[in-house]
Task: structure prediction
Amino acid sequence: MTVSIKLGQLAEVLGATLRGAEDKEITGLATLQEAGPGHVSFLANPQYRKFLADTQACAVLLKPADAELFAGNALLVPDPYLAYARISHLFDPKPKAVPGVHPTAIVAQDAFVDPAASVGAFAVIESGARISAGVTIGAHCFIGERCEIGEDGWLAPRVTLYHDVRIGERVVIQSGAVLGGEGFGFANEKGIWRKIAQIGGVLVGDDVEIGVNTAIDRGALADTRIGNGVKLDNQIQIAHNVQIGDHTAMAACVGISGSTKIGKHCTLAGGVGLVGHIEICDGVFITGMTMVTHSITEPGAYSSGTAMQPAAEWRKSAARIRKIDDMARRLQKLEKMVEAVTSGVNASSDG
Result:
């Protein structure tokens, strides 16, 4: 798919200040290093300023403060990365679905599929499900009983929704994601694990994105809840009864144990783990590979673990860590000895 748009039109779309030729044809987006004559690029990270002088881009999205660093066509905006995000959709080659139900799809008689929805090949839509206008159901998707998908949702091929999953509007779900699987709930009877029925559902808000192979378990009693605007990367595990507040974002391989509540506008970097039954307040940033073992009640950045270092140094540090408990006892003993000696000296002075 080839898209062509005038540079002046892009400026209008963005509300940008254009410095240069309005009639230049733009056919795509690229990095400063890889851009060619028909491309728009952007400078969002100061460390890439060194590429500005040699870029072959037709135009560059820049902050006004950086305008003098580039002699060519420029679109001046407050936030170049956000501007790039907005115009990226103009050049997205993702195929557009055609409304209608593919002849190989299986749709229950009492399921509702809006005529403006698209259902792909070999998809299955079970009894009582409701698919709203503008929804795209990719090939081989499974939509369980009584599921609801709001307007303009997009499900890539091979998405699985178990029964009683309710999804808001404009939700994007990538391939392999599973919503509504049974949570990990068992009761122990004399060493034998007895399964607990997971009778809740999953409730997903509007404008949510869910990455490849991410799993969101259904609630044991109440629903597992994903707030509006939440963004979930690939291979994330969200256990039963978890609640995630609006506009929180999580990078790949985050794992959240059952009944944990995460506030609004939080950011969890890759590989973060959270134990169950804790609460994270609004506005928390958790750095990569952090293990969260208790509730967080104050906004801010949190980390755990040790940063990378040369292996030889790390082995020395690990050896010292194993001795910390012994060192602490010895230090406590020394403090008591110093206190005793000090007390004796003071007593002699008083006498």
In short: The first strand starts at residue 5 and ends at 6.
